[in-house]
Amino acid sequence: MSRDVYVFAEQRDGELQKVGIELVGKARELADDLGQQVAAVLLGSGVKDKAQELIACGADKVVVVDDVMLEEYVTEPYTKALTAVINAKDPEIVLYGASSIGRDLAPRVSARIHTGLTADCTALEIDEETKLLMMTRPAFGGNIMATIVCEDFRPQMATVRPGVMKALESDASRSGEVEEFKVEFSDADMNVKVRETVKTAHKSVDITEAKILVSGGRGIGSAEKFKMLEELAGVMEGEVSSSRACVDSGWISADRQVGQTGKTVRPELYLACGISGAIQHAAGMENSDFIVAINRDEDAPIFDIADLGIVGDLNAIVPKLTEAVKAV
Ligand code: FAD
């Protein structure tokens, strides 16, 4: 029995996804509390060379299932491969990103191995006394934070929101073990055929992956005014995000919402324009590296968490900022 802490290290087109790296960082902390090791599971085709990146980010070992059947994410072969690894290794904990792939894969694996799954967690810690994993997630529309434990089944499994956990600094000198794990696939495992992958023409990235976010709140005033933010985000090579007020008003799509019932982000720069800084919004962005707030109300709570505050009308400030960045 290994009793280690495992992370499903998601990759897309051969690129490791940020959430997996973040989870390796968190797993390091949990494993240290348990006196165990961190293992990452890497599934794909031609992905073995990515194992060292995971070791550099904190994994002690990487279990790689490299097979043409895993070239594209398809539920059944991925479920089969991960289930086989878990059954063979008997981990104490398995973590997945709450991405579209993680949300599809984790429940199926949990059903196959007859264990529980806590979805969409925002905090994880080991209880000092019981050594159980305390899995915390928003519940009842974000009105309460529920902490869930899985007492009787193993592994304890959770999906975790992207952006919530902090990745460790990559250290190329770290060493670890890479194990190639073989899974016997048959044609019957590929019950879905991917005929074509069409990439969206829209070049925007998920807000949890963006390094710079230009975020709009109710103070923006209308859907049209978001163009002003898009222009600023464009010259800064960032993305546009928003508060829930704008999503509720239909000014922007829900995948751009930051906060307790939206996404948790941790960009290098978060520029909050016309956002008051309600706790439900702050919960999703307060761990950004550098926060700049533009608000005409000098008492707005956003200034309590901002590194730099600009008191004034965003309609005057944002275009000037765009021109200034263009001029650099
Ligand atoms: P407001 O609070 O209305 O603030 C607008 C700000 O714009 C004000 O500070 C004003 O001074 C400023 N302003 C106005 N005009 C200008 C101008 N011309 N120039 C400069 N500044 C200007 N909210 C989220 O964002 N994300 C969530 O995930 C989320 N989840 C929630 C979950 C629950 C259970 C509940 C109850 C609420 C949740 N909310 C969430 C809503 C949250 O409580 C706030 O209502 C919301 O964040 C407010 O959005 P806002 O800051 O854009 O708007």
Automatic annotation (TrEMBL):
FAD binds at residues 218, 243-244, 257-261, 274-281, 295. GO terms for molecular function: electron transfer activity; flavin adenine dinucleotide binding. Keywords: Electron transport, FAD, Flavoprotein, Transport. CDD domains: ETF_alpha. The keyword Oxidoreductase does not apply. InterPro entries: DHS-like_NAD/FAD-binding_dom (IPR029035), ETF_a/b_N (IPR014730), ETF_a/FixB (IPR001308), ETF_alpha_N (IPR033947), ETF_asu_C (IPR014731), ETF_asu_C_CS (IPR018206), Rossmann-like_a/b/a_fold (IPR014729). Transmembrane segments: none annotated. Residues 5-194 form the Electron transfer flavoprotein alpha/beta-subunit N-terminal domain. It holds the Pfam family ETF. SMART domains: ETF. Binds 1 FAD per dimer. GO terms for biological process: fatty acid beta-oxidation using acyl-CoA dehydrogenase. PANTHER family: ELECTRON TRANSFER FLAVOPROTEIN ALPHA, ELECTRON TRANSFER FLAVOPROTEIN SUBUNIT ALPHA, MITOCHONDRIAL. This is Electron transfer flavoprotein FAD-binding domain protein. It comes from Anaerostipes caccae (strain DSM 14662 / CCUG 47493 / JCM 13470 / NCIMB 13811 / L1-92). The lineage of its organism: Bacteria, Bacillati, Bacillota, Clostridia, Lachnospirales. The gene is etfA.
